[in-house]
Amino acid sequence: MTTRVALVGASGKLGTIIHRVIDGLDGIEVTHALGSRDTFASLSEVDLVVDATHPVVSAEVVAEAIAARVNVLVATSGWSADRISALRPAVAEAGIGVVFIPNFSLGSIVATALAAAAGRLFDSVEIVEAHRDTKIDSPSGTAVRTAELIAAAREVPVAAPHVDQRARGQQVASVPVHSLRRPGVIARQDVILSGPGESLTITHDTIDSAAAYAPGIAIAVRSALDVTGIVVGLENFVDIGIGAPAGGDQ
Fold it and tell me: Which residue ranges does the record assign to the Dihydrodipicolinate reductase C-terminal domain (predicted)?
């Protein structure tokens, strides 16, 4: 029996990559390729909804999937921990699963896990993330996720002097985040941790998004079919060997 998938945002850059990956999976097929302006009434006809739209539309897609009682994999960034937590009652009532993946790259989740582990040891932590100039949201979902996991690993907020000044970046879970949007960039994140007499920088650089995301997309699509409740982060489906998964239900 074929697993039917509705891919919303199918013609976008990420949507195209996701479509290609699903085409290569046995027993799983994109039966509904939808755009951001299409009606979502047909979501009740599928086994899984994959959202690859943009932040404004993503909320509508998730709401429609919950109403249709269909599991949904959210590949759209811009979802904060507070927004995700607000979905808990509706998701529980529907008895479905909602999976949020800020970044499909395996290297990215390793870098984030390392940053969360190191964040316990350094009082000064800042994130500099760069994406292409066409990316709508900032900070990136990956940067938000990294900052939240660093804060969760600490007993006290990071030291962030002069954050009242706009040039100091946007604070996410107490961590200053600086977003660059420039042409010629795919995705790069530097987590800079500083302590007395030393500094540690953890860098992840995406060179080819299609190649980097494909393994994670395959894992996420298969895993999202069987999830109940809310799960955030690809690390919940991959054993990266750096402590216990830091995500899980929200």
Answer: 111-236
